[in-house]
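User: Structure please.
Assistant: Input sequence and predicted structure:
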Amino acid sequence: MLAAEAVESHVRAFFKGHAVEVVVCDLEPDRREAVLDLRVLVVGPGPRSGSWAYVTAGCWAAMEKDGHGLEFVVTAHVRDQRFIDLIAMIAHYNRGVHRLDLEHSMPIGEPWVPGSACDHLLISLPYLHGPDLEHCPLPGGHARILWALPVTAAEIEFRRREGHEALEQLFDDAEIVPIDPFRASVV
């Protein structure tokens, strides 16, 4: 519980001037047991960013090792329950066999939003927000907040062949708008 509160404090300080709503996810009982204190912090547009951010608070406690663990952020163009559900899905997916980390990916199982070609998430540095959001001190350790970036299956396949850095270079070259759910694949 202390870790989730510390993450919430960190996110509120980082996004000072933004509205922050705390949503307790209504997970199924087996999922709730895996991530007991999961909250989703829904951050509205404001002085730091014109987009919405959805940040987990509670992943760290479920998966920390030696005081170090992860939380995740999804950035989107609107406030929508779909993104709260998506970030909760990431938290549950990360709880065991499919432990996520930097440069990992996961299938969403459907488009990020209806009509989008993005149906996977790429775990990356939180480039839209920077290291001040990424590094979150906690009692007895720290959390690293990583970005879950929606990407296409073709982009994931390219990353597997060419590497993470090569894919990020394509994103830079194409100047993608990462919160655009209808962006074209760079591959």
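The two ends are 42 Å apart (CA to CA).
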